[in-house]
UniProtKB/TrEMBL annotation:
PTM-bearing positions, type 4-aspartylphosphate: 69
GO function term, MF aspect, one: thioredoxin-disulfide reductase (NADPH) activity
Top-rank lineage group of the source organism: Bacteria
SMART domains, sorted: REC
One Pfam family recorded for the sequence: Pyr_redox_2
Catalysis performed (reactions): [thioredoxin]-dithiol + NADP(+) = [thioredoxin]-disulfide + NADPH + H(+)
Entry protein name: Thioredoxin reductase (NADPH)
Any one Gene Ontology BP term: phosphorelay signal transduction system
PROSITE patterns: RESPONSE_REGULATORY
Coiled-coil spans in chain: none
Signal peptide residue numbers: none
Length: 563
């Protein structure tokens, strides 16, 4: 015979007051009205109440509301609520105060996210106590007793590393909330972590662990991304985790090659910076670059590819034909691969204006000047007057995206019109957006900074030479790109701009030693292939990069069969 089904335990309302008479009175009134549906638990000091909470937590009980007296000798009500929040972050918080302590209670609204302060005495409870608690219980039930923990990033508006950390998390579609160290919530989080805010940014994980000035590889660990190859030898090593590299990893792994993808930062490449890719086949309403590339990363992993992030390839050693290629990392560790696909894409060129180059003494990058700004920026530019340099689709997409939050967006274009460089659909969208304006034949010739961040720009009309000064705290540059191939100096043949030559383009290049001609995407080193934007004469489009990544795998099979 089975016994009655166990009843779910009632959620708890916990009251704490050091005055036994008051403590009993609160518990009595609460029990009278809520006793049927809630368990009323009372304590007579903060430490006692915390001990009870630990027990409740261990037993898996839910706590809906805390009612804490403000003035308690061992631990004030605010201190208790602060600690209690760590255990039950979603429980609603009420502070009981005497009239004289009203100011402290109001301050507590910021410190502990106080829901309500209740003046003593609360008679009649039907008027003063129950309506308050009813409202809080309703709010608590709306989200349940589940804590919805989230990661917090506390930074400074003009701290470049704070921006980079937010980018890293955003580009991995990792949910977080950002605060500045100056705002009350930011200060409160730093205090709670025992930090004084001198070292920023600080990332506080869902579990409450603070990471002070985390490196990319610490962030990757937080996100559960792999940062170390597990093997010494692979069939295929793909260098670069943009669309071309991700496609190569998906096809390589799905076709049975033991595949590793090496990405120096975070997967996604340039596409991960695109707010909406509208011309990629199969997405009639467009797709965000982050969505496309994080899905692709998971797809590659599902097929068994190892995706390694925050590891930069710094050297490629070719060795004899048919032998393994060796890839070295910054820490001098190496891996071997029977074949390699280079998919290292391009990076933005720097604007040759004071303050806009990493080599300038007064470098404003990350302090108002941004290169290839990514989608997490839209909310960051709320109310600002944003200037975007560039006339290609990437600049147009950024303008559209930022116009949703910015006060105004001005596109600065060197040429006489957008027609030559931007897709027709984007030009139309821009024309129909009232807070975007386009200044053609215009370039940035100077920056003004104050307190180590951008406050203004000097613009020049290329036709008349006239200059004007405009106030701005945000300049985003999308001005063409150069390939990331310096590390391949002397290894694979490249054109005058550094793009890698392949297949038929190698015809006039000395160094090809085999009897057979190079395969289409094969470099001057047999068994080393190229896909995507880094290839000479490539199309510089997502679809082309994806196509080349998958085609390169087909050629890898051919090479391995011959070798
Ligand atoms: C904002 C923006 C919007 C765009 N919008 C569109 C669009 O709407 N439609 C479209 O078709 N195209 C668009 N493009 C272009 C498109 O994104 C690129 O053509 C495409 O991303 C190229 O892919 P890729 O894999 O060749 O290179 P990339 O995307 O550049 O990726 C290369 C990757 O290699 C990594 N890497 C580089 N060197 C190393 C190294 N030594 N070790 C390890 N990793 C390394 C980089 O960190 C990077 O992640 C846009 C580009 C930008 C910037």
């Amino acid at each position: 015979m089975t016994g009655p089904a166990p009843q779910p335990r009632k959620p708890v309302i916990l009251s704490v007051d050091d005055d036994p008479a008051v403590s009993r009175a609160v518990a009595r009134d609460l029990r009278r009205h809520y006793g049927e549906r809630y368990r009323i638990v009372r304590a007579e000091s903060g430490p006692d109440a915390l001990e009870t909470l630990h027990e409740l937590k261990l037993r898996g009980d839910a706590v809906a509301v805390f009612v804490a007296d403000y003035r308690m000798p061992q631990m004030s009500g605010i201190e208790f609520l602060e600690s209690a929040m760590d255990l039950y972050p979603m429980a609603r918080r009420v502070l009981l105060t005497a009239y004289a302590d009203t100011t402290a209670a109001i301050d507590a609204i910021n410190v502990v996210d106080l829901d309500h302060y209740l003046l003593k005495p609360w008679d009649p409870p039907e008027e003063k106590l129950y309506p308050v608690i009813d409202g809080l219980l309703e709010a608590w039930h709306a989200v349940g007793d589940r804590a919805i923990p989230y990661t917090k990033v506390i930074g400074h508006q003009w701290n470049p590393r704070s921006w980079e950390v937010r980018q890293f998390l955003a580009r991995n579609a990792y949910p977080f909330k950002a605060f500045t160290a100056e705002e009350p919530k930011g200060k409160q989080l730093l205090d709670a972590a025992g930090l004084d805010g001198r070292q920023l940014p600080v990332v506080i994980t869902e579990e409450g662990t603070p990471l002070v000035e985390p490196t990319d590889s610490e962030l990757a660990d937080l996100l559960g991304l792999s940062t170390n190859p597990s093997l010494k030898m692979y069939d295929l090593a793909v260098i670069g985790g943009g669309p071309a590299g991700l496609a190569a990893a998906v096809y390589g792994a799905s076709e049975g090659l033991n595949t590793v993808l090496i990405e120096r930062a975070t997967t996604g490449g340039q596409a991960g910076r695109s707010s909406r890719i509208e011309n990629y086949l199969g997405f009639e309403n467009g797709v965000s670059g982050i969505e496309l590339t994080t899905t692709a990363r998971r797809q590659a992993e599902r097929f068994g590819a190892e995706v390694i992030t925050t590891r930069k390839a710094v050297k490629l050693q070719a060795g004899e034909v048919g032998t393994a290629r060796t890839i070295s990392f910054e820490d001098h560790s190496t891996i071997g691969a029977r074949a390699v696909i280079l998919a290292t894409g391009v990076e933005y060129r720097e604007l040759s204006v004071t303050g806009c180059s990493a080599s300038d003494d007064a470098n404003l990058i990350g302090k108002g000047v941004y290169y290839g700004a990514s989608v997490s920026d839209a909310s960051e530019c709320a109310g600002e007057d944003v200037y975007i340099v560039g006339g290609a689709n990437s600049a147009g997409q950024a303008a559209m995206f930022m116009s949703k939050q910015a006060n105004s967006v001005t596109l600065l274009v060197r040429g006489p019109s957008l027609e030559a460089s931007m897709s027709y659909y984007l030009i139309q969208q821009i024309e129909q957006t009232p807070n975007i304006s386009v200044r053609t034949c215009t370039e940035v010739v100077g920056t003004t900074s104050r307190d180590d961040h951008l406050v203004g720009l000097t613009l020049e009309d290329r036709r008349t030479g006239e200059r004007d000064e405009v106030p701005s705290t945000r300049l985003c540059c999308f001005i063409g790109a150069t390939p990331r191939t310096k590390w391949l100096d002397g290894v694979v043949a490249r054109d005058d701009h550094g793009f890698i030559l392949t297949g038929p383009d190698l015809r006039d290049v000395v160094g090809w030693t085999l009897d057979r001609p190079p395969h289409h995407l094969e470099t001057s080193v047999p068994g080393v292939f190229v896909a995507g934007d880094v290839r000479a004469e490539s199309a510089k489009r997502v679809a082309a990069a994806v196509g080349e990544g998958s085609m390169a795998v087909m050629l890898v099979h051919r090479y391995l069969a011959e070798a």
